[in-house]
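ok posting inputs for the iron/sulfur cluster job
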Amino acid sequence: MQDKKKLIFNYVIDKDDFNPNFRPLAFGYIKSSLEKALPDMLNIKYLEGSIPEDEKADFLLISSLSPDWQNALTNIRSFRANNPSAAIIVGGQHITQLPETLPAEADFGILGEGEISQVLLVKFILEKNQDIDYLKTQIEGLVFFDKKVNEFYISNPKRLDFTQIPQPDWLAENGIKKTPYLLTSRGCPYNCTFCSSSNLWKKVSFQPAESIAEDISYLSKNFPKITNISILDDLFVADRKRLEKLYEILKEKNLLKRFTYACNVRADLVDEELCELMKKLNITYCSYGFESGNDRILKLLKPQGNCSVKTNIKAAKILKKYGFNVNLSVVVGTPTETKEELLKTYNLTIDLLKKGLVNDVAYNILTPMPGTHYWKVALENNIVEESNDFQWKRLTIFADFKHSSFDNFDDWLKERKKRNSVYLNEKYLPEDELYEIMSKYAKQRDKIFDRFNNKENRKFKTKGLRYKILSLFSKKYKEKYKKWKISKLNKNVKIKETEC
Ligand code: B12
Ligand code: SF4
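and the output
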C-alpha cells in the first residue's frame, strides 16, 4: 500500500477574534469529501491560526475570510519557504470574492463550494498530472496563474446540490471534540447592500428536510452532552414548507425535544404562523437584522422585501410573545447617515431592550466586505484596495455587543483604533463623534443587562433555597439541589453558600 500523503487544513483566524469552541464547518465538509473520494490516501491534520515554522506536509489547504487575509498570506509564505515542493490550495470566502489576490507562493485557489473541485484537484496533483487543459475543462471554480499566457486563469464555480455534498465530519480532530454546528442551506434569497452572502453563493440551495433530520439524528447519537445547536444558515426560515416537513420527520423520529436551536430570521418574514412552527421545532434563540431605526437607511441597506421600522418592531413583539430569546443586529455608520438618524436607532433599540422585547443588540459599524455594494463604494473612494498590500485587518472589529470577547466598550474601541478599522461615513458623522455616541449607549445597555441579571440572580437563588429545604425531605429534590449547585458553578453566579 502507498504511503499516505500528509495534508494540512489551516483555518486562518487571529487568536484575538477566535471563539475557542468553534471549529469551522468548512473543515468538516472538506475533510469528509476528501476522505470519501480518496480513501486511505491522505493523512489530514487540522491547524488553527499560524503554522509552526517546522511544519512539513505534502498539501496545505488554507481557508480564509477577508479580514484574515494578511495572516493567510503570512502562513502561505512561511509554509512555502519550508515546503518548496508541497501543493498549496487556497479556499474560502476571501479568494472566492477576490481570486486575483492569489499570491505567487500558492498554486491554486478554489472558488465557492470546495467539496467537488478540491477532490478533483488533489487527485490531479497526487497523480502528477501535468495536463493544464484537464484543469481548465474538468475543474470548476478554479484560479491559478497561467505562466504560459502570463495571466490568471479563473473559472466560475458551480453551485452544488446538497445531494452531492457528503455529511460533514463533526467528530473530534486532534483529540478535541468541539461544539457541532449545522448548515442546512447555502446562500440567501435577498441581496442586502452590506452583506456578501448572495455574491458568494449566487443562488440559494436548501438541504432537504429528510437529510437535515439524518444529521440531527447523527449529532444526537455522537454528541450526547450537547443540548443546543446553532444553525449557521443565513436565513434558516426562508423555506417554510421545508421546516414543516422537518417538524413532521423529527416528530416521527422522536427527536423534536433532543436539541434546542439558534437560527437567523428576517423581520419581514416573522408572523404568528412562523413563530408557531419555530416553537414546535424547539428553536429557542433567534436573531435578525434590525439594521436601523430609519426607513431611509433601511431602504439603502435592504432594498428588497419589506423591512421597515414598523416591521422591525412588529417582529420583536411577535417573537417575544412566543418566548424566544431575541437578538438584534444593527448597522451604524451607513454612508449618509446623520447624527439624528443614528440617535433614533439607538433610542429605539435601547427602548426595546428596556422593555424586555429583545435580549441583546449588536451594533456593527458598516464595514465594506468584498463582493458587496459598499465594497465598490469604498474602492471608488480609495478607502480600500484589491491588493495584497492592503491592510486586511482594517475590515475587522466592527461589532460591539454585550457578550463579545471584549470586557467593555473602551477595550473594544482601543482594538478598533489599533487596527485602524475602516469607516465610511466621515463626511456625515465624524468617526470620533460616532464613538462618543456608541460609548454613551453602551453604558446604558450595560446597565439594563446588570438590572436584568440581578433580577435573574434573585430568581435563581430563591429556586436554590427551595431545593435545599425540600432536599431534606425528598430524594427527588436532593438530585435537583445537586444539579442546581452544578448550574451555579457553570453560571458563575456570585452567591455565597450561606445565602441559601
Ligand atoms: C460562523 C461565522 C463566524 C464565526 C466563525 C468565522 C469563520 N471564520 O468561519 C465567528 C463568530 C468567529 C465569525 C466572525 C466573523 N465573521 Co463570520 N460568519 C460566520 C457564518 C455565519 C458561517 C460560516 C460558516 O461556517 N459557513 C459554512 C461553511 C461551510 O462555509 P464556508 O466557510 O464558506 O466554506 C465553504 C466554502 O467557502 C469553501 N471553503 C472554505 N474554506 C475552504 C478551504 C479550501 C482549501 C477549499 C478548497 C474550500 C474552502 O468550501 C466550504 C464548503 O462548501 C458566515 C455566514 C455564512 N452563512 O457562511 C459569516 C461570515 C463568514 N462572517 C463574516 C464576517 C464579516 C465576520 C467578521 C469579520 C465579523 C466581525 N464583526 O468582526 C468576523 C471575522 C472573524 C475572523 N477574523 O475570521 C462574513 C465574511 C465576509 C468575507 N467576505 O470575508 C460572512 C460571510 C457573513 C456575511 N454574510 O457577511 N463568523
Ligand atoms: S443580510 Fe441577511 S437577509 Fe440580507 S442578504 Fe445577508 S443574509 Fe440575506
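notes: The longest strand covers residues 283-291. Residues 13-14, 17, 19, 22, 24-26, 29-30, 61-63, 65-68, 89, 91-94, 97, 110, 113-115, 118, 183, 195-197, 232, 234, 369-371, 396, 398-399 surround cobalamin (ligand 1) (CB under 6 Å).
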